[in-house]
Amino acid sequence: MMGRGMGGMGGRGSRYGNPNPRVEAELKKPKRGILIRLGKYLWQFKWLLLIAFGLTIGSNSFSLVGPTLSGRAIDCIGKEAGGVDFAGVGHYALLMLAFYFASAVMSYGLSVLMVYISRNVTLRMRRDLFNRLADMPVSFFDTHPIGDIISRIFYDIDTINTSLSTDVVTILASFITIVGSLLMMIRISPVLVLVFVITIPLSILITRFITKHTNPLFRLRSRKMGELNGFVEEKISGMKTLKAYHQESNVLGDLDTLNGEVVDAYCRSEYYSSIIGPSMGLINNISLSLISVFGGLLYMTGGFSIGGLALAGMSIGGISSFIMYSRKFAGPINEIANIYGELLSALAAADRVFSLLDEPLETADLPEAEELKDVRGDVELRDVSFGYEPGKTILKKLNLTARSGSLIAIVGPTGAGKTTLINLLMRFYDVDEGSIHVDGKEIRMLTRRSLRGAYSMVLQDTWLFSGTIYDNIAYARQDATREEVIAAAKAAHIHRYIMSLPQGYDTVISDDGANISKGQKQLMTIARAMLADAHMLILDEATSNVDTRTEVQIQAAMRRLMQNKTCFVVAHRLSTIKNADLILVVRDGNVVESGTHKELMRQNGFYRQMYDAQFS
To answer: Is the CA virtual torsion 231, 232, 236, 237 positive or negative?
Structure first.
């Protein structure tokens, strides 16, 4: 694929590690709408969420009854002449046990339900992301590291999944517990609640201060993780080349640098987020101390007045209940503080996922676009100009005519625009100027699906998926019979090799065909293209990994199979295209020569120079 390779063997490329002012500025911008978009995914399970909300309320409400019952049990001490009302203590103890057991059962059900919801949310999110990728233009994959895309599909979505299944429940339960505990404390002693007038604003100020520093760090952490994944994927895929050039130490140095940046981003984000927990713990301990002091005064004095304000006394049980409620009130705040880093990480991951979902799709077909039917295979390029970047034109006023059933060979030096021409024929990119016609119809007036379905393509970079050899060849036509698959394999001169394997066509290929040679992989992809019921064929250096004799045999077989169909061949080995109906010599984006092999040799021009250079 274009835009990928072993770039940065000796020194890391610009994609990895080098600060980009625009990107760094973007990281500092507040991201809006992330929670709303996550909410839309959750809303798809609104009825289950309603049940989850009910379970949360029930579980925490039952749990909040416990401290009140505990206080009443304590107040049973001293009520009887003997000193303790054991019947009352037992009564309240059994009630506490029943309420706490019911709370635990509801909490368990809530956890199971949220795991189910989060699993399905992430399933839909990953499916939406992959569907989006399938509809993106080829240019996106040419310019974005594959490792970073994979990181968003798996690492970032898994981070969201973890947060939805645990953190959302914690926040919801904490909110109910905080509100419930506050109401209970107000019921017991409104005066003691005034302690929180000091501690709560202090907690909010500290949290906001830390948040201001941590938000950009978590977004930076996710981006650095994506860069590391892209780097590792690139180097592993090119490991043979890396070893061949003895670049192990250089790559390890680059990895250490990039890995250090990832670790540094993790440490900085975790450091600031970890400050929140101890800070909240300190403030909560201060509030607990104040409650104990003032509660003790109210108990010992039996109540007193300050400036005409009468303060009612409190019992030991009341103080005990208030302290337990204050701990329940402070506990959720501590929990939220402790998971705050996870929440920020999940939001940063969601931001990366949604930014990928917001990438522009491939330009939609025009409303008046029609299906390409009854394909003859006449192809014509009229004054076509194109460049991948503005101001950098690769093809300049290119004209080409390919009649149905002809074999068109495209040759030229590296960078002349041969593969670019193929990209335009398949409409992976649209021309900047001029037009391309198939059977007399401008391709922008045709649907992409029907246009691309009219071609079969075999590239130099072969692609086989995990499965049997039969499945890989039949991938071109799902309705193909076994006899048709075998016929295509024979035409591609791979049948004999397949039959030499212990399981023949049922042999399983793994890891992109790592257990077979490159030449055999290429022959299988050629057999796949032969099997496809297409009216035009594109071969982009498709036989570069097979020997010359086999290549000539394949060309002859293709000519038999491609009768009345158009074939475009991009080739470097000029000996294999001698029988082409038309050879186009492309140089600097222009067709400088055209004709048959004999005609071009007689012209004694650039083609003759290339031919002599290969066979001199």
So the answer is: negative
